[in-house]
Design goal:
Elements lengths: L1 E3 L4 H12 L8 E4 L3 H11 L3 E4 L5 H7 L5 E4 L3 H4 L6 E4 L7 H9 L3 E4 L2 H6 L1 H8 L5 E4 L2 H14 L1 H4 L10 E8 L17 H5 L8 H9 L1 H14 L6 E5 L5 E7 L4 E5 L5 H9 L31 H11 L3 H17 L8 H10 L9 H25 L2
Parallel strand pairs: 1-2, 1-5, 2-3, 3-4, 5-6, 6-7, 8-9
Antiparallel strand pairs: 8-10, 10-11
Helix pairs in contact: 1-13, 2-3, 5-7, 12-14, 14-15, 15-16, 15-17, 16-17
This protein binds magnesium ion (MG).
């Protein structure tokens, strides 16, 4: 295993899974952007051959704390470098910065346990080309997509799963992604005008990093997941639906042409999808999130409130536009979320920023990494203009 983004929420839970069954897994490399203290502690515990640190500022300090014989790679390319040599590469990097890791793992023909959805969304056309490399395969760690993967695998078998996103014809009517609804489910748009960063970070069912938690509060996380599902499984946007399910027990489902629904259920615990991706095509021998049916609270479903949470439809719009639009959407969203976390714009301004950026999108389909970088940059630039305008207006 190579665990990229090892100090983040996905990374630390990945190490938890690995430690639950140390005989099955061997960590050859770990890497992170900046968290030197935790990286040093992980290196002492796991004894990987290689450790990568993207931010060079504390490299000397880290080097002194690594076990003898550990190779340290430093700099912006380091994380992609450790994604090239392992049977399974876990990409738990946050945000668009995960793209080089995704591409390096796929181009090296590795199995990619993908938690970084942004790389697939922004870099879709480029990632799909890399994915055609012999041996390369994506097993999603995102809980909804992991659920869809398990359901489709039950329907199609492993051989056809390896042909994604160009599967044989599937007897499928639709896939249904579940959304917890986030901390603001049931609230009116007016009552959300003054919510604080703390309010938005209080997720009811999942404990995650700040970026994805804010995305969850706006439903942009679900919107990004709609695009992610399209990219992963080659399913058209008209056949991808979203339903709100506050308990996060049903992690998503597929409906076959004859009306049957297949779903994957477990308690909300990311270690299950992580373990699924690590062990694939086998199954982990340790249970995370198994359900006690005698103790399960009622589970509910309701339609998403698309007027109060416009980010969901912004994502559908960008997905249907295709080309560079998903990259613009993603870049603009990262800028908007950062501006909200910095206190520069209000929570309700986030969709306005993204919408303003999407209105400007005219870039062609990205065919190289540079095209993707350019689309991301352009989306961010228009988002920054919108942030400045909104921040000035609220002064
Ligand atoms: Mg998810």
């Amino acid at each position: 295993m190579s665990v990229v983004g090892s100090t983040g929420s996905i990374g630390t839970q990945t190490i938890d899974v690995i430690n639950s069954d140390p005989a099955s897994f061997h960590v050859v490399a770990i890497g992170a952007a900046t968290s030197v203290d935790l990286l040093a502690a992980q290196a002492l515990e796991l004894r990987p051959d290689r450790v990568a640190l993207a931010d060079p500022r504390r490299a000397t300090e880290l080097e002194e704390r690594l076990p003898a014989g550990t190779e340290l790679l430093v700099g912006p390319e380091a994380l992609a470098e450790i994604a090239k040599s392992a049977d399974v590469v876990v990409n738990g990097v946050v945000g668009f910065a995960g793209l080089p890791v995704t591409l390096a793992a796929l181009l090296a023909g590795r199995r990619l346990a993908l938690a970084n959805k942004e790389s697939l969304i922004a870099g879709g056309p480029v990632v799909q080309v890399a994915r055609a490399t012999a041996g390369a395969e994506i097993v999603p760690v995102d809980s909804e997509h992991c659920a869809i993967h398990q359901c489709l695998r039950a329907l199609l078998g492993e051989k056809d799963m390896a042909r994604m996103p160009h599967p044989p014809s599937m007897p499928l009517r639709r896939i249904v992604l579940t959304a917890s609804g986030g901390p603001f489910r049931g609230r009116s748009q007016r009552s959300l005008a003054e919510v604080t960063v703390q309010d938005a970070l209080a997720h009811p069912t999942w404990t995650m990093g700040p970026k994805i938690t804010i995305d969850s509060s706006t439903l942009m996380n679900k919107g990004l997941e709609v695009i992610e599902a399209h990219e992963l499984f080659g399913i058209g946007y008209d056949s991808i639906e979203v339903v709100v399910h506050p308990q996060s027990i049903v992690h998503s489902m597929i409906e076959t042409t004859d009306g049957a629904t297949l779903a994957q259920l477990s308690l909300p615990d990311m270690r299950l999808p992580i373990g699924y991706a690590l062990a694939y095509p086998d199954r982990l021998q340790v249970a995370f999130g198994a359900i006690d049916w005698t103790q399960l609270p009622p589970i509910e479903f309701e339609p998403p409130d698309r007027a109060t949470f416009p980010c969901l439809d912004l994502a559908y719009r960008a997905g249907r536009e295709g080309g560079a639009a998903p990259a613009w959407l993603n870049g603009a969203n990262e800028v908007a979320v950062a501006a909200f976390l910095d206190g520069r714009i209000r929570w309700i301004d986030i969709p306005a920023v993204i919408s303003a950026a999407l209105d400007e999108c005219s870039a062609p389909v990205p065919s190289t990494v540079d095209d993707v970088l350019e689309s991301d940059r352009a989306g961010r630039e228009f988002a920054r203009v919108a942030v400045d305008r909104l921040a000035r207006a609220s002064l």
